[in-house]
Amino acid sequence: MSTAANESASHTTASPRPILRPKSKRWGGTIFFKVEEIVFEAPRSRFAEHSEVFETMFHLPVGSDGAVEGRDEEHPIVLEGYQAVHFDSLLNVLYPTPEDLISGILKLEKEEWIGVLNLSTRWSMKKIRRHAINELSKASLNPMEKIALGREHEVAKWFREGLTELVSENPIRPLAELKSHLGADIACSLLWVQNQTQAILGARLAPTGLSLGMLGCFRCQAAMFTNGRNCVSCSRTIAVDDCSALHIPNGALSTYFHAEDPASGLTQVTFRINLQHLMCRACSECAFSLTSYTCPSCSQLVSYSIFELRLGKNGIENGSAPQKILEEFGEEIARYEAWDEK
Questions:
Q1: Which residue has better confidence, 267 or 111?
Q2: Given 160, 193, 262, 338, which residue has the most CB atoms within 10 angstroms?
Protein backbone atom coordinates (compact mmCIF):
# COMPACT_ATOMS: atom_id res chain seq x y z
CA MET A 1 0.00 0.00 0.00
CA SER A 2 2.73 2.45 0.94
CA THR A 3 4.57 1.80 -2.34
CA ALA A 4 1.48 2.53 -4.40
CA ALA A 5 0.83 5.67 -2.39
CA ASN A 6 4.39 6.88 -2.92
CA GLU A 7 4.12 6.31 -6.68
CA SER A 8 0.82 8.19 -6.74
CA ALA A 9 2.34 11.06 -4.81
CA SER A 10 5.34 11.25 -7.12
CA HIS A 11 3.05 11.54 -10.14
CA THR A 12 1.01 14.31 -8.58
CA THR A 13 4.03 16.34 -7.42
CA ALA A 14 6.14 16.07 -10.61
CA SER A 15 6.46 19.47 -12.28
CA PRO A 16 5.25 19.64 -15.89
CA ARG A 17 7.84 20.18 -18.63
CA PRO A 18 7.90 23.66 -20.10
CA ILE A 19 6.26 23.97 -23.49
CA LEU A 20 8.75 25.07 -26.16
CA ARG A 21 7.31 27.96 -28.07
CA PRO A 22 8.11 28.07 -31.80
CA LYS A 23 10.26 30.89 -33.08
CA SER A 24 8.63 33.45 -35.27
CA LYS A 25 9.45 33.01 -38.96
CA ARG A 26 9.83 36.14 -41.01
CA TRP A 27 10.25 35.94 -44.77
CA GLY A 28 11.02 39.62 -45.15
CA GLY A 29 8.32 40.16 -47.71
CA THR A 30 8.30 39.32 -51.38
CA ILE A 31 10.96 40.52 -53.79
CA PHE A 32 10.71 40.70 -57.58
CA PHE A 33 13.65 40.10 -59.92
CA LYS A 34 13.85 40.47 -63.68
CA VAL A 35 16.35 38.20 -65.42
CA GLU A 36 16.45 38.47 -69.18
CA GLU A 37 12.74 38.96 -69.99
CA ILE A 38 11.32 36.92 -67.11
CA VAL A 39 10.10 38.36 -63.79
CA PHE A 40 10.62 36.07 -60.77
CA GLU A 41 8.84 36.46 -57.43
CA ALA A 42 10.32 34.99 -54.24
CA PRO A 43 10.61 35.62 -50.48
CA ARG A 44 13.57 37.89 -49.91
CA SER A 45 14.79 36.34 -46.64
CA ARG A 46 17.05 33.60 -48.03
CA PHE A 47 18.70 35.90 -50.52
CA ALA A 48 19.73 38.14 -47.63
CA GLU A 49 20.59 35.16 -45.42
CA HIS A 50 22.94 33.47 -47.90
CA SER A 51 24.44 36.45 -49.73
CA GLU A 52 26.07 39.60 -48.42
CA VAL A 53 25.59 41.03 -51.90
CA PHE A 54 21.80 40.95 -51.55
CA GLU A 55 21.88 41.86 -47.86
CA THR A 56 23.67 45.07 -48.83
CA MET A 57 21.41 45.64 -51.83
CA PHE A 58 18.25 45.39 -49.74
CA HIS A 59 19.50 48.08 -47.35
CA LEU A 60 20.45 50.66 -49.95
CA PRO A 61 18.70 54.01 -49.45
CA VAL A 62 15.62 54.75 -51.53
CA GLY A 63 16.21 56.96 -54.56
CA SER A 64 15.10 60.58 -54.75
CA ASP A 65 12.00 59.60 -56.69
CA GLY A 66 10.91 57.30 -53.85
CA ALA A 67 10.88 54.21 -56.08
CA VAL A 68 11.87 50.95 -54.37
CA GLU A 69 13.27 48.37 -56.75
CA GLY A 70 11.88 44.89 -56.26
CA ARG A 71 8.71 45.91 -54.43
CA ASP A 72 6.34 44.79 -57.20
CA GLU A 73 6.22 43.30 -60.66
CA GLU A 74 6.29 46.73 -62.28
CA HIS A 75 9.48 47.70 -60.43
CA PRO A 76 11.65 44.55 -60.30
CA ILE A 77 15.34 44.40 -59.51
CA VAL A 78 16.86 43.97 -62.97
CA LEU A 79 19.78 41.53 -63.00
CA GLU A 80 21.77 42.29 -66.13
CA GLY A 81 24.21 39.76 -67.56
CA TYR A 82 22.61 36.70 -65.97
CA GLN A 83 20.64 33.79 -67.43
CA ALA A 84 17.05 33.17 -66.41
CA VAL A 85 17.56 29.40 -66.46
CA HIS A 86 20.41 29.75 -63.95
CA PHE A 87 18.31 31.95 -61.69
CA ASP A 88 15.44 29.48 -61.81
CA SER A 89 17.81 26.67 -60.76
CA LEU A 90 19.05 28.77 -57.84
CA LEU A 91 15.47 29.36 -56.68
CA ASN A 92 14.93 25.59 -56.67
CA VAL A 93 17.84 25.25 -54.24
CA LEU A 94 16.88 28.20 -52.03
CA TYR A 95 13.20 27.19 -51.89
CA PRO A 96 12.89 23.40 -52.32
CA THR A 97 9.42 21.89 -52.73
CA PRO A 98 7.81 19.55 -50.16
CA GLU A 99 8.48 16.69 -52.59
CA ASP A 100 12.19 17.55 -52.53
CA LEU A 101 12.23 17.52 -48.73
CA ILE A 102 10.24 14.28 -48.42
CA SER A 103 12.43 12.42 -50.91
CA GLY A 104 15.60 13.93 -49.49
CA ILE A 105 16.85 14.50 -53.03
CA LEU A 106 16.87 17.77 -54.93
CA LYS A 107 16.80 16.62 -58.54
CA LEU A 108 18.66 19.02 -60.80
CA GLU A 109 20.41 18.22 -64.05
CA LYS A 110 24.13 18.77 -64.50
CA GLU A 111 23.67 22.03 -66.43
CA GLU A 112 21.29 23.28 -63.74
CA TRP A 113 23.88 22.67 -61.02
CA ILE A 114 26.43 24.54 -63.14
CA GLY A 115 23.99 27.46 -63.19
CA VAL A 116 23.66 27.28 -59.40
CA LEU A 117 27.45 27.24 -59.07
CA ASN A 118 27.73 30.22 -61.41
CA LEU A 119 25.35 32.43 -59.45
CA SER A 120 26.39 31.28 -55.98
CA THR A 121 30.00 32.12 -56.84
CA ARG A 122 29.18 35.53 -58.30
CA TRP A 123 26.93 36.42 -55.36
CA SER A 124 29.16 34.91 -52.63
CA MET A 125 26.61 32.32 -51.50
CA LYS A 126 29.20 30.10 -49.85
CA LYS A 127 26.96 27.32 -48.53
CA ILE A 128 25.09 27.05 -51.82
CA ARG A 129 28.38 27.09 -53.73
CA ARG A 130 29.84 24.24 -51.64
CA HIS A 131 26.69 22.19 -52.17
CA ALA A 132 26.76 22.76 -55.93
CA ILE A 133 30.42 21.71 -56.07
CA ASN A 134 29.62 18.53 -54.13
CA GLU A 135 26.73 17.67 -56.44
CA LEU A 136 28.72 18.33 -59.61
CA SER A 137 31.63 16.27 -58.27
CA LYS A 138 29.27 13.28 -58.37
CA ALA A 139 28.54 13.89 -62.05
CA SER A 140 31.78 12.35 -63.43
CA LEU A 141 33.26 15.51 -64.92
CA ASN A 142 35.85 14.83 -67.60
CA PRO A 143 39.30 16.51 -67.40
CA MET A 144 38.36 19.26 -69.87
CA GLU A 145 35.23 20.11 -67.88
CA LYS A 146 37.15 20.14 -64.60
CA ILE A 147 39.69 22.61 -65.97
CA ALA A 148 37.12 24.84 -67.69
CA LEU A 149 34.67 24.89 -64.77
CA GLY A 150 37.49 25.14 -62.25
CA ARG A 151 38.85 28.25 -63.94
CA GLU A 152 35.48 29.87 -64.58
CA HIS A 153 34.17 29.33 -61.06
CA GLU A 154 37.47 29.26 -59.12
CA VAL A 155 37.28 25.65 -57.92
CA ALA A 156 40.88 24.74 -57.15
CA LYS A 157 40.20 21.03 -56.66
CA TRP A 158 38.69 20.58 -60.13
CA PHE A 159 41.33 22.69 -61.82
CA ARG A 160 44.19 20.74 -60.27
CA GLU A 161 42.55 17.34 -60.88
CA GLY A 162 41.77 18.16 -64.50
CA LEU A 163 45.33 19.26 -65.21
CA THR A 164 46.77 16.13 -63.59
CA GLU A 165 44.40 13.83 -65.47
CA LEU A 166 45.18 15.43 -68.83
CA VAL A 167 48.93 15.36 -68.30
CA SER A 168 48.68 11.73 -67.20
CA GLU A 169 47.11 10.66 -70.49
CA ASN A 170 49.42 8.93 -72.92
CA PRO A 171 49.31 10.06 -75.62
CA ILE A 172 47.95 13.44 -74.64
CA ARG A 173 44.98 14.77 -76.59
CA PRO A 174 45.40 16.52 -79.95
CA LEU A 175 46.89 19.98 -79.67
CA ALA A 176 43.98 21.43 -81.66
CA GLU A 177 41.50 19.97 -79.14
CA LEU A 178 43.41 21.37 -76.18
CA LYS A 179 43.63 24.83 -77.76
CA SER A 180 39.96 24.78 -78.73
CA HIS A 181 38.71 23.93 -75.23
CA LEU A 182 41.35 25.50 -73.01
CA GLY A 183 43.12 28.18 -75.04
CA ALA A 184 46.62 28.29 -76.50
CA ASP A 185 48.41 29.34 -73.31
CA ILE A 186 47.17 26.53 -71.09
CA ALA A 187 47.53 23.99 -73.93
CA CYS A 188 51.21 24.86 -74.36
CA SER A 189 51.74 24.78 -70.59
CA LEU A 190 50.20 21.31 -70.41
CA LEU A 191 52.52 20.06 -73.15
CA TRP A 192 55.50 21.47 -71.25
CA VAL A 193 54.40 19.78 -68.01
CA GLN A 194 53.92 16.45 -69.76
CA ASN A 195 57.33 16.71 -71.40
CA GLN A 196 58.94 17.38 -68.02
CA THR A 197 57.15 14.53 -66.26
CA GLN A 198 58.04 12.13 -69.06
CA ALA A 199 61.69 13.06 -68.68
CA ILE A 200 61.49 12.44 -64.94
CA LEU A 201 59.84 9.09 -65.60
CA GLY A 202 62.70 8.13 -67.89
CA ALA A 203 65.21 8.96 -65.17
CA ARG A 204 63.27 6.82 -62.69
CA LEU A 205 63.06 3.85 -65.02
CA ALA A 206 66.82 3.79 -65.39
CA PRO A 207 67.57 2.48 -61.88
CA THR A 208 64.31 0.56 -61.33
CA GLY A 209 64.28 -1.50 -64.52
CA LEU A 210 61.57 -2.46 -66.96
CA SER A 211 59.91 -5.58 -68.34
CA LEU A 212 59.90 -7.27 -71.75
CA GLY A 213 56.24 -6.31 -72.11
CA MET A 214 57.20 -2.63 -72.05
CA LEU A 215 59.28 -2.94 -75.22
CA GLY A 216 57.22 -1.89 -78.22
CA CYS A 217 57.29 -1.52 -81.96
CA PHE A 218 58.15 2.04 -82.94
CA ARG A 219 55.80 1.71 -85.92
CA CYS A 220 52.56 0.49 -84.31
CA GLN A 221 53.43 0.76 -80.57
CA ALA A 222 52.32 -2.86 -79.97
CA ALA A 223 54.29 -5.11 -77.61
CA MET A 224 57.25 -6.73 -79.35
CA PHE A 225 57.49 -9.57 -76.85
CA THR A 226 54.40 -11.40 -75.59
CA ASN A 227 56.27 -14.35 -74.06
CA GLY A 228 59.35 -14.75 -71.92
CA ARG A 229 62.79 -15.30 -73.45
CA ASN A 230 66.33 -16.15 -72.34
CA CYS A 231 69.21 -13.75 -71.86
CA VAL A 232 71.63 -14.27 -74.78
CA SER A 233 74.59 -13.80 -72.45
CA CYS A 234 73.78 -16.06 -69.47
CA SER A 235 70.65 -17.96 -70.63
CA ARG A 236 68.63 -16.79 -67.63
CA THR A 237 64.87 -17.02 -68.26
CA ILE A 238 63.24 -13.58 -68.30
CA ALA A 239 59.45 -13.51 -67.81
CA VAL A 240 57.53 -11.04 -69.94
CA ASP A 241 56.29 -9.10 -66.89
CA ASP A 242 59.43 -9.32 -64.73
CA CYS A 243 60.62 -5.78 -63.98
CA SER A 244 63.55 -7.01 -61.90
CA ALA A 245 65.38 -8.93 -64.65
CA LEU A 246 66.43 -6.00 -66.85
CA HIS A 247 67.81 -2.54 -66.29
CA ILE A 248 68.89 0.41 -68.39
CA PRO A 249 71.86 2.65 -67.60
CA ASN A 250 71.38 6.38 -67.12
CA GLY A 251 71.16 8.20 -70.42
CA ALA A 252 70.22 5.12 -72.45
CA LEU A 253 66.72 6.40 -73.20
CA SER A 254 66.18 8.84 -76.05
CA THR A 255 63.25 11.21 -75.66
CA TYR A 256 61.16 12.24 -78.66
CA PHE A 257 58.68 15.09 -78.17
CA HIS A 258 56.13 15.37 -80.99
CA ALA A 259 54.23 18.65 -80.96
CA GLU A 260 51.71 17.01 -83.25
CA ASP A 261 52.12 13.65 -84.91
CA PRO A 262 51.06 13.94 -88.59
CA ALA A 263 49.65 10.41 -88.70
CA SER A 264 47.45 10.44 -85.60
CA GLY A 265 47.14 14.15 -84.86
CA LEU A 266 48.11 13.37 -81.26
CA THR A 267 50.58 15.30 -79.19
CA GLN A 268 52.89 12.89 -77.41
CA VAL A 269 56.25 12.20 -75.88
CA THR A 270 57.90 8.86 -76.62
CA PHE A 271 61.03 7.07 -75.45
CA ARG A 272 63.25 5.07 -77.80
CA ILE A 273 65.69 2.50 -76.55
CA ASN A 274 68.57 0.62 -78.13
CA LEU A 275 68.52 -3.03 -77.00
CA GLN A 276 72.31 -2.90 -76.90
CA HIS A 277 71.93 -0.88 -73.69
CA LEU A 278 69.35 -3.16 -72.05
CA MET A 279 71.23 -5.24 -69.50
CA CYS A 280 70.46 -8.50 -67.71
CA ARG A 281 70.67 -7.96 -63.96
CA ALA A 282 71.96 -11.51 -63.42
CA CYS A 283 75.09 -11.17 -65.57
CA SER A 284 75.28 -7.41 -66.24
CA GLU A 285 75.62 -8.12 -69.96
CA CYS A 286 73.39 -7.28 -72.90
CA ALA A 287 70.32 -9.54 -72.80
CA PHE A 288 69.42 -9.39 -76.51
CA SER A 289 70.78 -10.36 -79.89
CA LEU A 290 71.71 -7.27 -81.87
CA THR A 291 69.50 -8.00 -84.84
CA SER A 292 66.10 -7.08 -86.23
CA TYR A 293 62.89 -8.45 -84.72
CA THR A 294 59.51 -9.03 -86.36
CA CYS A 295 56.63 -7.20 -84.71
CA PRO A 296 53.88 -9.75 -83.89
CA SER A 297 51.23 -7.10 -84.51
CA CYS A 298 52.17 -5.30 -87.75
CA SER A 299 54.68 -7.93 -89.03
CA GLN A 300 57.27 -5.23 -89.75
CA LEU A 301 60.96 -5.70 -89.02
CA VAL A 302 62.16 -3.54 -86.15
CA SER A 303 65.84 -2.87 -85.65
CA TYR A 304 67.27 -3.56 -82.19
CA SER A 305 68.34 0.09 -82.07
CA ILE A 306 64.88 1.70 -82.30
CA PHE A 307 62.54 -0.06 -79.89
CA GLU A 308 59.91 2.12 -78.26
CA LEU A 309 59.16 2.13 -74.56
CA ARG A 310 55.45 1.43 -73.95
CA LEU A 311 54.41 3.56 -70.98
CA GLY A 312 50.82 2.37 -70.83
CA LYS A 313 47.80 4.32 -69.62
CA ASN A 314 49.25 5.22 -66.23
CA GLY A 315 52.87 5.65 -67.22
CA ILE A 316 53.13 9.33 -66.44
CA GLU A 317 51.34 8.98 -63.12
CA ASN A 318 54.55 7.46 -61.79
CA GLY A 319 56.34 10.71 -62.53
CA SER A 320 55.95 14.02 -60.72
CA ALA A 321 53.03 15.57 -62.61
CA PRO A 322 51.47 17.14 -59.48
CA GLN A 323 54.73 18.90 -58.60
CA LYS A 324 55.24 20.19 -62.13
CA ILE A 325 51.63 21.36 -62.27
CA LEU A 326 52.16 23.34 -59.07
CA GLU A 327 55.29 24.89 -60.57
CA GLU A 328 53.41 26.01 -63.67
CA PHE A 329 49.94 26.76 -62.26
CA GLY A 330 50.61 27.23 -58.54
CA GLU A 331 49.66 30.91 -58.37
CA GLU A 332 46.38 30.34 -60.17
CA ILE A 333 45.51 27.36 -57.96
CA ALA A 334 46.30 29.43 -54.85
CA ARG A 335 43.91 32.17 -56.00
CA TYR A 336 41.11 29.66 -56.36
CA GLU A 337 41.86 28.08 -52.98
CA ALA A 338 41.62 31.52 -51.40
CA TRP A 339 38.05 31.99 -52.64
CA ASP A 340 36.47 29.97 -49.83
CA GLU A 341 38.64 31.75 -47.27
CA LYS A 342 37.12 35.14 -48.06
A1: 111
A2: 193
